[in-house]
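Give me structure tokens for this 172-residue protein.
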Amino acid sequence: MARMDHPRVTLEPGGIAALLLGPAVVLVPAPPAMADGLTAVVRPVPAGLGPVERIAVVEREVAVAEDGQLTSSAGLLRLGEASSYAAQGEACTPQRLAEALRRHRGDLWSALAEFGYVGGRGGGVQAAALAAAFAVAPGGPEPAAPDRVFASVEEFAARCCAWRDAPPSTGG
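Here you go.
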């Protein structure tokens, strides 16, 4: 039987690339503005190893870190039910995530690749390609407006890790 790689997650409408951070949490590094009524579409990779899931997003928050040296942002989305697919990254502490963000100058795609959330452990090449493909470019989609702005990368990392362990929710 084929081994499951990372599930591919997109948010509809909009086709926004995301990562399954926990059973009922999706993270969007450097999120663009997002419509209301989002659905997380979770696809097994390779295709055919299981059903495609469509799970309603019931809560979301856009968090931004601006500490004077770097800026990073994350769309944190809670799902109405847990995905049957496992998040592929290792649990990381806020301290380790903050250190990775500093090494990657705020690039959350690359920081999470260090922990195996993007293309397996050390998935930096895939992370760089994803970051470039979904970066908010001049004339492209507007970045998401922040709900929370943190003055330190450590506080931002703690917020991301707190969401990772959140249970499914039925409302905001």
